[in-house]
Amino acid sequence: MTRARILGTGSYLPEKVVTNHDIEKLVDTSDNWIRERTGIYERRVVAESQVCGDLALVAAQRALESAGVSGSDIDLVIVATCTPDNIFPSTASVLQSRLDIQPGAPSFDVSAACSGFIYALGIADKFVRSGAAKRPLVVGSETMTRILDWDDRGTCVLFGDGAGAVVLEASENEDGIISSHLHSDGSFESLLYVPWGPGRGFSALDDKSGYIRMRGNEVFKVAVNTLTRIVEESLESAQVDKSEIDWLIPHQANIRIIQATAKKLELPMDRVVVTVGEHGNTSAASVPIALDTAVKDGRIKRGELLLMEAFGGGFTWGSALVRY
Ligand code: ACO
């Protein structure tokens, strides 16, 4: 059976660090409140000159390098983002050209908010299983701080910028993506959304309408319940016992949500990759950044069983069980 094996990983974080103390100067909040409720103590913020595609480019270059392949070896590009550089061309098409990826290879962006990377990985997996692609590049890249209302303490403390990438390769052995699961329920739109998009016309764009709005407490409750269900679905479908999971690589939104999922898996926190403290919620970039962090520091080793999961605006949610 053909599976999509992770050949290499890469990530990139902008240089500028914004701490909770920096945000204390902008809104009525405290380092203590942010740490206790979310686990976040700092986040990275893009330079004025950088766009999502710039972050994606460096993460992708690092993933190609770690995979030992070049752009011309890639035959599919998927970028997960809700903060693309342009309405079109897609960030993936821009990346295709900047990395000298084969002209004619399909490239497109995926919009599934914080679940975007899991969606992109699941789509790439299906391309590989069907024989439509042999070596996809899958990226999650976000400039979330560009769509934050810095007067809204309920959201501006939560998000950060960054990018992560993986190179996949069709493989006939047991390694790779064992199963992926993607879901959505659009009826929760009012809990987490950005009220403006280009289809509404520029006359509908005012000072605040391009920014994230969230009813955080309600999102929190649905996220915890939904992630519990998706973890069960992943294990059941692959007939894997929770004791077999070596690493949980969750979407990094809130340490309390992460702890709840780890508890469900009866997994000690030292088997969970946690980057939310130093990166905040980087939306579609959070899972590939966490993956790359733990691969590069030597925690995740070849042959280990990884469970990745995410939940985000839409609502969307998904998971991937991977033999690394
Ligand atoms: N600093 C200080 N006080 C604050 C802040 C802040 N930054 N933000 C809110 N508060 C206040 C509220 O006004 C409220 O005050 P009140 O009791 O006087 O009314 C109080 O703190 C409690 O607010 P809650 O919203 O109930 O706090 P909660 O414990 O739920 O934590 C949080 C808020 C951190 C946002 C949490 O709900 C959360 O993480 N939600 C999930 C977010 C998420 O996972 N999003 C995922 C997807 S994002 C995407 O897809 C793009």
Structural commentary:
- The structure is a single chain.
- The chain has 324 residues and is α/β, with parallel strands linked by helices.
- The protein has 2 domains: 3-173, Thiolase/Chalcone synthase (Peroxisomal Thiolase, Chain A, domain 1), CATH 3.40.47.10; 177-323, Peroxisomal Thiolase, Chain A, domain 1.
- Helix content is 32%, strand content 24%.
- The chain has helices at residues 20-24, 31-38, 52-67, 91-98, 116-130, 153-156, 216-238, 255-264, 276-279, 286-296, and strands at 3-12, 16-19, 42-45, 76-80, 107-110, 136-143, 161-171, 176-184, 192-193, 213-214, 247-250, 305-312, 316-323.
- The strands form 4 sheets. The protein has a 5-stranded mixed β-sheet with strand order 1-7-6-4-5, sandwiched between helices.
- Helix 3 crosses helix 4 and helix 7 (216-238) runs parallel beside helix 8 (255-264).
- The two termini are 16 Å apart.
- 50% of the residues are buried.
- The model has no long low-confidence stretch (mean pLDDT 97).
